[in-house]
Amino acid sequence: MLLRPIAVRSTPARPAVHCAAAPAAARLAALLVLGVGLICGLPAAARAQAVTLVNVSYDPTRELYRAVNDAFAKEWQAKTGQKVTIRTSHGGSGRQARSVIDGLDADVVTLALAGDIDAIARESKRLPADWQTRLPNNSSPYTSTIVLLVRKGNPKGIKDWDDLAKPGVQVITPNPKTSGGARWNYLAAWAFELDRSGGDAGKAKALVAAIFRNVPVLDTGARGSTTTFVQRGLGDVLVAWENEAFLAKQEFGADRFDIVYPSLSIVAEPPVALVDQVVDKRGTRAVAQAYLAFLYGPAAQRLIASHFYRPFRPEHAAPEDLARFGKTRLVTIDGVFGGWAKAQAEHFADGAVFDQIYQAGAQGR
Amino acid sequence: MSDQPAALPDEGSGRPAARPTPVIRPRPTVDETRATKAILIGTAVAFLALFVVLPLIAVFAEAFRRGVDHYLESFADPDTQAAIRLTLTVAAIAVPLNLVFGICAAWAIAKFEFPGKSLLTTLIDLPFSVSPVVSGLVFVLLFGAQGYFGKWLAAHDLQIVFAVPGIVLATVFVTFPFVARELIPLMQEQGTAEEEAALTLGASGLRTFLTVTLPNTKWALLYGVLLCNARAMGEFGAVSVVSGHVRGLTNTMPLHVEILYNEYNFVAAFAVASLLAGLALVTLLAKSVLEWRYGDALGRTRLY
C-alpha cells in the first residue's frame, strides 16, 4: 500500500524508460520474426508458382530416381512451363508403406513389391484396391531379380541357394518384415528348393530356415544390408537386388566383389502407383500422372537400364546396358506363390512361416 | 574441475621439496602406490581416448578426407541446406517452449507445496527414461492418419506427423526435462526467503519473479538452455519416427547424415556430422566456461 504512491509518481518517468527499452525489445522481436520468416518463408515463396511432388520409394532406388527426377523436371518444364520439384523419401519398403498409411502425404509411391501398396490400399483406403491394373506390366515400369554378391574370387565357393545354408557361411540380408527386397530374397530361395525337390514345401522351409540361421545381422532396408556387407565388411555373401549388387560393384570397385547368379531366381516387380487421396487434396493429379507415365517412356527406360534395373521396354535401353545382365532361370510370384496377397499371408504375416523359422533359429542359437 | 589444474602444478613442483619431510603423512587413507594411481588414470584416459576422442577425430578426418573443397561443396546441396534450416527452425521453436515450460515447472515445484507435486516431478523425468522410439510412436498413435485424432485432423486439413509440427512436438517432448532439471535443485536450495522479502515489500508476483527469482537462477537457466538446444538439434530416434524422411521437406541434420551415409556419400555425411559435432563441442565449451565461472551459482545439488 505504501509503495503505491511511489509507483504513481514514477509513471511520468516510465515512458522514457519504456522508449529506451521498447526499441531494443521490438528490434529483437522483429529479428526473431524475420529469422523465422526467412526460414519458413523461402520455400513458401518458391511454392507459389512451382509444384512439388513427393515420391515415397524403397531403399535402393535413390540413385535411379535422382536421375529420373531431373529428366522429368526438365521435360515437364519444357512442355508446360511449370517448375516441378520432386522430393523423395527412401527406406525399407514395408516401413515406407507404414508411413504412408499413418499419414505421410505421398503423391506417388514406388515400392519394392505390390504387397506393400496393397497394404496402403487396405489399411488407409488412400488408393483403390485395383491400383495395380491402372498401369502396364502390373504397374511395374522396371523389374529386377535377386542375385548373390560375394567377395572377390568367391572364397567360400558360393554357386547357388543351397550353398547359403552351409555351416560357416555368413549371409547378409535385410529383415523381411520391414524390407521388400528381403521378401524377394526369401521367396527366391524358397522357389529354388521347391523346384529342386519337386514341390516339397517342407524341404523349402528347411532350406530357408537354415539360411536364416546363417544371418548375423538383419538390417531394416536393402541399403543398410549393402552397407553392412560392403562398408563394414561383414559376411561372406550378400543376398541383394541385382541393381543393388551392380551399384555396389560400381561404387566400391569391381575388383572387390563378384556377382553370382543362382540357377533359379525370381522376377522382382517393384510397382508404382498414384495415391489418389493425396493428389486430389493437393491438386497434383495431372503432374503425378505424367510422372508415372514418364517412367514408361524412352528417356526413363534408358535411365532405368543404365541404373541396372531391367526395363519394361528394353528396346529403349542402350544395348550395352542390357548386356550386363546375367542369364538365369526366372520364376514369378504369381506362378509359384499365387500372388502377393497369398505369399504375404502364408510367409510374412505375424506368426506365419518366417516368424516360425526365425524364432526357432533364435532359440537354436 | 577448476581446482584440479591449479593443484597439479603445485604437486609437481612440490615433489622434490617434499623429500626431506617423509615423516608427515597427513592423509593415510589415500596413499595408493604410484602404480595404482598410474593404472587408474591410465585406464580412464585410454577409455576416454578410445571411446570419445578417437571417434571425434574420425568424424573430422572423414569429413576432410578429400580436402576442404569437397567439404565445403557438401553444404552446397540444397537438400543439406534444407536439413540445416529445418534443424535450426525446430530448435528455435522447441527451445523457447521448453524454456517457458521449464521455468514454470521449476517455479511451481521449488517454491510451492501442492497436491500431486511429486507426481509432476516424476513426470518431468519421463522423457529421460523412455526410449526415443516410443516418444516418436506416441505422436504417430495420436496424430497419425489412423491415430486418435487422425480423422479430425484430416477433416480440417491439418498435418502434424510427417511434417514440421510433428518434428517439433517430438523434439519438445524429448528435450523438456533439461531446463526444469537444472532449475529445480537450485531453486529448492535457494529457498523462498528472498521472494518473501520482496513480496513483503509490496512487489507484485511478476515483479518478484523478474527481479529476484530470475536473476538468481540465470546461469543455471543458460546452462539448461544449452543442453536443451544441443539435444534438440541432435535428436535422432524420436524425430526419425515422425519425420517420413522426405528430403528437402522433413529431414533434419541427424537424419540427413544417415541418408548421405546410405547413399555412399561419405564425405558429405561426415561433413554434416562434423557440423553436429562442432555444435556439441561449442556447447561443451560454453558449459565448461559456465561451470568454471559461475560454478557456485549453478548449484551443487545437480542430479547428473
TrEMBL record, chain A:
Keyword Translocase annotated: no
Keywords, comma-separated and alphabetical: Periplasm, Signal, Transport
Assigned protein family: Belongs to the prokaryotic sulfate-binding protein family.
Name of this chain's protein: Sulfate ABC transporter substrate-binding protein
CDD domains: PBP2_CysP
Subcellular location: Periplasm
SUPFAM superfamilies: Periplasmic binding protein-like II (SSF53850)
Cleavable signal peptide: none
Taxon lineage: Bacteria, Pseudomonadati, Pseudomonadota, Alphaproteobacteria, Hyphomicrobiales
A Pfam family assignment: SBP_bac_11
Stretches that traverse the bilayer: none
Lineage top rank: taxon: Bacteria
UniProt key word Amino-acid biosynthesis: no
UniProtKB/TrEMBL annotation, chain B:
Domain of life: Bacteria
Region (Disordered): 1-27
Keywords: Membrane, Sulfate transport, Transmembrane, Transmembrane helix, Transport
Membrane topology category: Multi-pass membrane protein
Domain ABC transmembrane type-1 residue range list: 84-285
Role, per record: Part of the ABC transporter complex CysAWTP (TC 3.A.1.6.1) involved in sulfate/thiosulfate import. Probably responsible for the translocation of the substrate across the membrane.
Cited InterPro entries: CysW_permease (IPR011866), MetI-like (IPR000515), MetI-like_sf (IPR035906), Sulph_transpt2 (IPR005667)
Record organism: Rhodoplanes tepidamans (Rhodoplanes cryptolactis)
Alphabetical list of SUPFAM superfamilies matching this protein: MetI-like
Protein name per Swiss-Prot or TrEMBL: Sulfate ABC transporter permease subunit CysW
Gene: cysW
Membrane-spanning segments: 38-61, 82-110, 130-149, 161-180, 264-286
Biased segments, Low complexity type: 15-27
Location, primary (coarse class): membrane
Quaternary structure annotation from Swiss-Prot or TrEMBL: The complex is composed of two ATP-binding proteins (CysA), two transmembrane proteins (CysT and CysW) and a solute-binding protein (CysP).
Subcellular location as annotated: Cell membrane
